[in-house]
Amino acid sequence: MIGPHAAHARSVQLTVDAVSAVSPGQLTLKTPCSEWNLTQLLDHMTVQNLGFAAAANGAGADDALWATGAHRDDPTADYLASAAAVSDAFAPADVLDRQLWLPELSREQAFSGAQAITMHTVDSVLHAWDVARSIGRNLDPDPELVEFTLGIGHQVPDGDDRRQPGAHFGPRAQIPAGASAWDQTLALFGRSPDWSA
Q: How far, in Å, CA of 121 to CA of 132, rounded?
């Protein structure tokens, strides 16, 4: 089973590969995240990277770090810079034992570094797929990363909160018989594997 550091590094690289393929003319395309076009999705991903990086470095409680909607002259370049920042922040071995503040999730309790790196890994894998599908490409994560993400997907409850506006994941989608592990993963996190713009 892949460890959390390796899974995180591979997940962020997936996003880097997906975002690097985006051309300026594609930034207004629809995404599987129905409330966002590609520019807005990249802004969200950039903010998440910078917020998690700050949290790993002990400064995540600052609400200003998590604000989306900024105008970006080059959304792809901003994203790639944020990916480098979050990769560096989660690279130290002791990050798993740190206490991180993630105000988007709770203002009452901190999260362990192990919890945070897992959450960011799952987010990165899913958003890499979102970006790839937005520009008509497929995403094929390595089997170990799929296994890691699928295991988390089975642990996330499919409650009513996933049907509320702003939910982190949509309701689980139907998993067809014989679906691949990757398609099962997408469905567990509310994605339709055959989505296209």
A: 17
Cα–Cα distance between 59 and 158 in angstroms, integer?
31
The three-class DSSP label of residue 173 is coil
In residues, how long is the chain? 197
Q: What are phi and psi of 15, to 5 degrees?
A: -65, -40
> ∠ at Cα 92 (106, 68), nearest 5°?
40
Gap between the Cα atoms of 65 and 103, Å rounded: 10
Residue 64's CB is within 10 A of a number of other CB atoms, namely: 6
Q: What are phi and psi of 62, to 5 degrees?
A: -75, 110
Blockwise average pLDDT, block size 10, the chain, 197 residues: 95 98 97 94 97 95 88 96 98 96 90 97 98 96 96 86 75 87 95 88
* pLDDT recorded at residue 1: 80
Neighbours of 123 (CB within 10 A): 20
Residue 57 three-state SS? coil
In this predicted structure, what is the pLDDT of residue 174?
83
The C-alpha R_g of the chain, in whole angstroms, comes to 16
Is the pTM above the cut of 0.70? yes
CA 95, CA 112: separation in Å to the nearest integer? Answer: 9
